[in-house]
From TrEMBL:
<dbReference type="Pfam" id="PF17898">
    <property type="entry name" value="GerD"/>
</dbReference>
<feature type="region of interest" description="Disordered">
    <location>
        <begin position="144"/>
        <end position="175"/>
    </location>
</feature>
<dbReference type="InterPro" id="IPR041262">
    <property type="entry name" value="GerD_central"/>
</dbReference>
<feature type="domain" description="Spore germination GerD central core">
    <location>
        <begin position="28"/>
        <end position="140"/>
    </location>
</feature>
<protein>
    <submittedName>
        <fullName>Spore germination protein D</fullName>
    </submittedName>
</protein>
<feature type="compositionally biased region" description="Basic and acidic residues">
    <location>
        <begin position="144"/>
        <end position="153"/>
    </location>
</feature>
<feature type="compositionally biased region" description="Gly residues">
    <location>
        <begin position="155"/>
        <end position="175"/>
    </location>
</feature>
């Protein structure tokens, strides 16, 4: 019955439209086992090795190629990060003294220092970061003053009198 429908003019038009659709063409082409075989043969062929190297040297081709593989690479990396064996290997690599030495050399470079300064400047522009920095500085100041007062004055009462005495000494020193 389906064959009878396909032999009608309407059936033929429907098949032509389906074949003419770009999405349908891509699906048909990509799913064909002949395409897989052709790609494997062309990539693994010694004759095409130079052509492939030329393609990989073309920035536009590389850009498009990378875009196509980006999602797949992200998925692989996420899967690898969950793999305990991979994580152990990465930790061993990072603990390697030679790797540590290379990392330290990188951090001493002028470019790294410039990038660090840029990041720090951007962070300081953030109001939230500024607030945190001020709070930390305030705590450090209190701790350093508190340590001196406890030794010389003996606690909370000493802090109050020293704060008052400090104001008086500034006034007398300025006049």
């Amino acid at each position: 019955m389906v064959l009878d429908i396909l032999h009608t003019d309407e059936g033929k038009k429907a098949v032509e439209e389906a074949i003419g659709n770009e999405e349908a063409q891509k699906k048909m082409i990509l799913e064909a086992p002949e395409v897989k075989k052709a790609v494997q043969e062309s990539l693994l062929s010694e004759d095409n090795k130079k052509k492939l190297e030329e393609l990989m040297g073309d920035p536009e081709f590389i850009k498009e190629y990378a875009k196509q593989l980006e999602e797949e690479h992200k998925k692989w990396l996420k899967d690898l990060m969950k793999d305990p064996e991979y994580r152990t290997s990465m930790q061993e690599i990072l603990k390697d003294p030679e790797m540590e030495k290379q990392f330290l050399e990188l951090t001493k470079s002028k470019e790294f220092r410039q990038q660090t300064m840029t990041v720090m400047k951007e962070a300081i522009q953030s109001p939230y970061f500024r607030l945190e920095l001020l709070q930390l500085m305030s705590e450090v100041a209190k701790d350093s003053l508190g340590g001196e007062k406890k030794e010389g004055e003996g606690g909370e009462g000493g802090q109050e009198s020293e704060g008052q005495g400090g104001g008086g000494s500034e006034d007398s020193g300025g006049g």
